[in-house]
Task: structure prediction
Amino acid sequence: MSEYKTLSWQGLWKNNPALVQLLGLCPLLAVTGSFINGLGLGLATTAVLIGSNTTVSLVRNLVPAEIRIPIFVMVIAAFVTIIQLLMNAYTFTLYQALGIFIPLIVTNCAIIGRAEAYASKNPVKFAAFDGLMMGVGFTLVLVTLGGLREILGSGTLFSGAEFLFGDWAKQLTLTLYVTEHKFLLAILPPGAFIGMGLLIALKNVLDKRLEQLNKQPAKVVQRARITAESS
Amino acid sequence: MQSLIDKIRQGRFFDFPGGVHPPGRKTLSNQDVIGKCTLPEHLYLTVKQHIGAPGQLQVKVGDEVLKGQALTRSTNPFALPVHAPTSGKVTAIAPHVSAHPSGLAELSVEITPDGRDKWIDLTPIPDYQQLPKTRIIEAICDAGIAGMGGAGFPTHIKVSPKKDVEFLVINGAECEPYITADDRLMREHAWQIRQGIDVLCHLLNPGHVLIAIEDNKPEAIQAMQVACQEKPDYIICPIPTKYPAGGEKQLIQVLTGREVPHGRLPIDVGIIMQNVGTCFAVADVIFTGKPLIQRVVTLTGEAMTKPCNVWALLGTPICHLLKHAGYEKAQQGVQRLIMGGPMMGFSLASEQIPVVKSTNCILAPTQQEMTLPEEEQACIRCSACADACPVNLLPQQMYWHSKAKELDKAQDYNLFDCIECGACAYVCPSQIPLVHYYRVAKAQIRQQEEEKQKADKARDRFEARKQRLEEEKAERELKHQQAAEARREAMHKQGDDPKSKVAAALARARKQQTSDETTAAPETADKVAAAIARAKARKAAVQQGDSAPSDTADTAAEDKQAKVAAAVARAKARKAATQQGHAAPSDTADTAAEDKQAKVAAAVARAKARKAAVQQGDAAPSDTADTAAEDKQAKEATASKSKTTKQVKPKDKVSTQVTAADTPVKPAPADDREEQKRQRVAAAIAKAKQQKAQKDRQQASSTADMPAEKVAQPLVEVDEQKKQRVAAAIAKAKARKAKLDMQSSADNQQDKTDE
Amino acid sequence: MSLLYALLAIGLLALLFGLILGYAAVRFKVESDPLVEQIDAILPQTQCGQCGYPGCRPYAEAIANGDEINKCPPGGESTIRQLADLMGLEAKPLDDAHGSNDVKKVAFIREDECIGCTKCIQACPVDAIVGASKQMHTVISEECTGCDLCVDPCPVDCIDMVPVKVTASSWRWQLDAIPVKTID
Amino acid sequence: MSLRIASSPHQRSQRSTAELMRLVCYCALPGFALQCWFFGWGSLLQFLIAAVVALGTEALILELRKKDFEKALSDCSALLTALLLAICLPPLTPWWITAIGAFFAIGIAKQLYGGLGSNLFNPAMVAYVTLLVSFPVAMTSWLPPQHLAEHPYNLVDALSVIFTGFTGEGYSLTQLRSDADGFTMATPLDAVKTDLSLGLTLEEATSKGQFNNGLGIGWFWINLAYLAGGLVLLKLRAIKWQIPVSMLGTILLVAGIMHLSAPDLFASPWFHLLSGGTMLGAFFIATDPVSASTTDRGRLLFGAGIGLLVVVIRTWGGYPDAIAFAVVLMNMAVPLIDYYTRPRTYGHQRQRGKP
Result:
């Protein structure tokens, strides 16, 4: 159980792929113009992560170390293709909105990173859970950033939810304010960078607080004797 | 080439980049002739006043010295002597605060003048042109002449170059604001300076002599022109006034357009530079024989009521000069004194700092004329510093890196080419003390390099040691192997004769013991014991507080207890020995040889040792003296053993108090056998004693010894500190006592043994 | 059919790249691990053991294998910074558990108290103590790294760690630390 | 009483950072005054808003960073940033846009980078670019010069428009911008750009009302005023000549060549030099010491780069004026420029590969 707990903590916060490892920044910054876009990409990435982690873990003992990376890439590519086709079939508008970033999940370092660093060394159940948590962590950052940018840039939230969830979700769209002068910067790429920077800063601040809260009592390390004392 | 000299003759000079124009304020002090100063009460001559090595002291406290007498001797090429500036008595040779930015104390000779001002016999060499050059250079060296411009480089090294000298540059630029010492010197002693230049020319044989004077000193220029009239190859160069035109490298650039390559000396571009003050001093030496004992010092600043130039004896404390110039601290607000000019001088930490060979100015500014440094603000990268830098550095980059301690990057920006002229900090609008950052960074880099070297050396030594230890170990192992082989061989020869084995074992034991004895010869052993006891006492004193041995009654009781315990131990050991059949410890089993006697002996010894150790451990605070007593007992025992054995040869088992070791001795057939055994027993006892003593030391304090019974009574009342001291004393006494006791109680012991 | 071609092409490419990679792996093999040497060169070589390893080199090896870089009190901040640069890590403050970066010290033996036991000689990692059995010992302060390993073994406690005295040449422009004499 | 210990040099020139900043402010005043004269009170109000927000932000963030903000505020750098920003903003920009700009300039572009001296980009220009990108309409709503305007406005109107969006008489900003024919009056640069893109020749484009002999009315004088202020700065050695000279020279050269090659398609170099923020940029913005190059050769390169970018962006870019973009882009190149233009230190020979 504690392993699951550690994995959750690592994936969601401590070793968050987006905020700490800074992996997969390209899709992260590119598609987080709105909450739903972020959510869509996040879910897709999560699905790929779980699938690839599970598969990699399953075959981990069969794969020769020398060619593991190409094999991982093949596995990931396969899952990405599956996801891509699924999205093409069921959430076509979103698929179009996300565009190239769906196929680009293949190159998302977060995925191959987890496959290499974790899944290839651990049993299936942990690997799958790790994929889930990393994916959720990534998704959380995506939706937070997407939500922030959407609120600042267009004054709405959850707009386009119908693309992901179907027509019923149209009513989910919240309009927070209407203005003649929209804050375009938030929607534009610089806004993504600035927002991302601020999120990372926020995380660091929180981490510092946490650290101060549970400060470890000072330990003293035994000094090694270099040379023997005389007998 | 010719065109260059033509250009110089026409007064067309080059320029160096950057530079600043701080207000000169030279008229403050250059109005009057150079004055004379009265003798101070004491003179402090720092032994090392130049770049290089200090000279070797020639005088001792109490010596009478004459004016001009050498106080130190030059022992290597980079050492310069210092001379007594007046006649008097050497009253101290001790560290005195020195003319260094750090204000650290350095070895100085304190002279109390006798007021007679009596010269030593002088030997001028006016016929220097007939003498060999080495003779002149020697005279210059013996006169202690170092560059008087500020750096203090030994002049005799500078005037004996290995290369041809194209230009001899005489530096009279004096670009620092406020300072007028060279200015006045040129105005008043141009003739003698010229004579000094003649001497230098004789030594260096330069192509041309350039006398560089900033054009804000027209009188000095004129005076020098007059003095050099008959020397057509002496060219007076009135160079434009700009700080730091007087810097060696900058002056070379201004005059010749040449640059001294990084890490090289001016002589590498065919130039030698000497300060006018140095020329004057050289002339002094050659024509009057006077060594360097005084120099012109500018006393200036608005806090001086009578700013002036003065001939100051080396070693004169600053406060004496300040008095001369009418220094009024009330005018200053915040007091500060600067040695050197306002751009490169350093602030003084004490008024007792003496004048040294490179002291050209004492500056006491008021707050209005030099505002106090404000708090440093953020650098706005205005690059005013880069524009002011005379060597084309990027001061702000160096500042960033120095501040961030990125020393390698700072070096990458040529930090070490900085001449610390202060132009950058002068212009900085953010009040950043840039030069200070560079100095700190330079010092850090030097320190790091030093540490790196030291670390490399330490690594080498560590590895060498490791290797040595390994070799030693291998050697030892080899020896052991050989010994083992030898033994095996012997065994083969003697078959399964148990005696030989025993003999070998005994021989080993004996060897060990003798070696023990040699290392711990009785006297040394006592000393060592005393020392160890002392140390323990100290340690105990530190740890004291919770341990209760200050209680005398307790001590006494424990002492007794310890004795009892020892007795019990002995008894038990004896018992063990007698009952060895069933009570033999398991570990004896493996050593159990065929030889019963040997087995018995070993078992007894071991058992006793263990028992004793355990017992003594229980009887907690038994002490070293006790140990000594036991030791003595043991010795006594062994000593009397032969007697005992003789006396009680057909002894019954229980009747005697003889040490346990005696028991197995009983059936011993031969004398030498007995001897061996005795030794083994003694060894065992010694071992036991040692173990016990160790345990004692760990838990008990030294107060719990026999003499403590007498002394410890007052301990209960006295405070902790006293207790500790007493404890230490006791510990020391204890060892002595133990020795005495050993002898005095010999009879007693004998009785006991006999009992 | 086209599927077959695609598979064939991919397979051939995989084979080709595999061969190149395999060749490169043999051809450009790195013989030794120079990282340890580099780290060792940065460490101050006091051999004090405060890092918990018996000597600087073992610690260097430990760092190369991923141990923390902030365990060397004698090296202090500058060593940590250099290590961080070398290892591509972030510099962090010295770990207090290993002691603090004190002023530089050297051992000094109070010679009249020395009993000549040679224990300190055996404890000194750099052979900076000279002396023989029953002769008094002395420290070659030039060689002493200030590790204070000799202090504990001394049975008579006659070894002191003395701060290295600042001289004019080793002075580092600590202007604010200059004691200023008061004038009246 | 004890002796004061300090590091040399003990003497210092008396110019301080605050003085330098104030000097720059003063020298910008004539141009700013002219701007107010031509385009109304709005600019002054913008300055006040920007100054209040900028100083407030600076104080707030310094407080958060636990630094002494009184001292930092007194160096006038925030004030200068506010002034430069206000100069760049259209006079009747809604107040909150100005506030966002000022906050962005100080909070993001300056303090997040470490405060005065550590910012990589010119804060005022970063803020301007941010606003321009975020609110393109509001940021290009320049009024016609007052004497050409259909509805000249007074101080109260300005206040009202800035804070509510309408004058007291109910005119909106768009109406204020319209000329007699109901067409909005763009800035000369904007107009030229639009017209050229519509296929008109330069001559046709510049024949409109806000042009006078091919140069924009008002802008011409304003630029001259900034030029004068800049010359004073040069004279007082507050800035160095390299950046303005190389920047204006490059504009002249590049625009000149282009104009000569196709007079109908490319505006004349004089038009480039004397419209928009060219002079302001050359003397007041590009010379910001913190974000500009610090070596002499570097400054020449830096200025030339800005000049080139200005012409290029004005001609082919999507926004009418280009000073801000050019400056920010070149700011980015400063560390590189500085590294490769290090001066040769005394006694060092120039080595190949290592300048």
Summary: The longest strand of chain C covers residues 105-109.
